[in-house]
Amino acid sequence: MHTFFEYNWQVRDEWFTWCNQLTTEELLKYRIGGVGGILYTLFHVIDVEHSWLRAIVGKDDLVVPFAEYDTLEGIRFLSDTYRKEIKEFLPKILAESTNQLVTVAWDEKNYRKNDILHHVIAHEIHHIGQLSVWAREVELKPISADFLGREFTSMK
Amino acid sequence: MHTFFEYNWQVRDEWFTWCNQLTTEELLKYRIGGVGGILYTLFHVIDVEHSWLRAIVGKDDLVVPFAEYDTLEGIRFLSDTYRKEIKEFLPKILAESTNQLVTVAWDEKNYRKNDILHHVIAHEIHHIGQLSVWAREVELKPISADFLGREFTSMK
């Protein structure tokens, strides 16, 4: 499971670099599908990952307004900050029981920890697929989504 | 790992049902991004999954021309046929060593079985993200990519 997180983080970082080719206006421009834009997609996957993983370890939900981070530098800072925090507790999450029930701040249900991990992983890959279409729309080559051919460093 | 396969198959089947809303012409129409069209995307994820998984169990690569299956019924038939075959050997793949080295017909490299499984899973989720953008372009609601909230039956 941890390899999927490493994959998502590596692909996300490559998209950050890719974003340097576009102006902030292009990054913020409304686009059809998904959550409606390149930078907001990156914000959304970062926020969703952070919220769900914090819920697993019993931390409260931090609601962060997009408007405070709506530049490439801002989103990258948010991603780096959250990732540093996540790296501290993810090994523990992955090592312990997969069936733990998790309560969250944003609805009344209980979720199985293992389902949350699957959800967070699939969520980011899905949204990155949307970025790849928008990349072609602005006539740029998207970042490869291939899992094979990547080298992963241990997250520890 | 098997839950990601069940997830992909369930989402894929929901996209097949979704496709009934479109004409064959719309399904075959060239679209920007990915492999360039809705039906061809579904063909591509089916073909890639089947080829890599067959390689793991030492079966030869079956090269199937898209032109032979280029209707919704044709693609669905291909998906059902391949899935039936995959379901026979996937439990064995998932139960055995993850570090097995696999050779494939389409290049000279060796691949780690576990990497192939990650690759195949991420590959489909990524391409399905592209379908979701094209769905909005034709003003239809895409299939939900949410992992949470789904019920999975055992693949056995």
UniProtKB/TrEMBL annotation, chains A, B:
What Pfam families would the database entry show? DinB
Highest taxon in the source lineage: Bacteria
UniProtKB keywords: Metal-binding
What does the similarity note say? Belongs to the DinB family.
Task: Provide the protein name.
Answer: DinB family protein
